[in-house]
């Protein structure tokens, strides 16, 4: 171990594998937690999980649900879900919205696929 190796804030015997993306604490492998691709300490992980999903995550899911009555709102869900996931990765939106945004985006893709299938079906029928 060279002198530049940082040590875990909780386990001084363990070398740090990285820092918490929220508070900057040095973390060893045992302390690391992952949320939406961000490394977090135990404490921040709890805080992030306790945050409410953003309005955009909820809206994306609402559009994804609406897509079941006509597919087209599903396209909005893809866009919103994608934007929300990008914002979560940048740390600008609460990580708790990740599941919602991902679900909205996936359901949106399903609607898009259905739209294509129905469109091709109609086109073939002439
Ligand atoms: Zn932290
Ligand atoms: Zn540790």
Calculate the mean pLDDT score and round it. 91
Count helical runs.
4
Secondary structural class? mainly alpha
Low-confidence stretches: none
- Percent strand equals 5-15%
Q: What letter string, H or E per element, gives the SSE order?
A: EEEEHHHH
Query: Compounds present?
Result: zinc ion
What's the number of structural domains? 2
The helix fraction, in percent, is 40-55%
Q: What gross morphology would you assign?
A: elongated
Describe this structure in words.
The chain is built from 4 helices and 4 strands, in the order ββββαααα. The protein is mainly alpha-helical. It folds into 2 domains: 1-49, no CATH class; 55-125, no CATH class. The strands form 2 sheets. A two-stranded antiparallel sheet has the order 1-2. A two-stranded antiparallel sheet has the order 3-4. Helix 2 packs parallel to helix 4 and helix 3 packs antiparallel against helix 4 (98-125). The model has no long low-confidence stretch (mean pLDDT 91). The site of one zinc ion has 8 residues, from helix 1.
Observed structural traits:
single chain, 126 residues, mainly alpha, two-stranded antiparallel sheet, 4 helices, binds zinc ion
Helices and strands in order, then pairings?
Blueprint: E1 18-19, E2 26-27, E3 33-35, E4 38-40, H1 42-50, H2 55-66, H3 72-89, H4 98-125
Antiparallel strand pairs: 1-2, 3-4
Helix pairs in contact: 2-3, 2-4, 3-4
The structure holds zinc ion (2 copies).
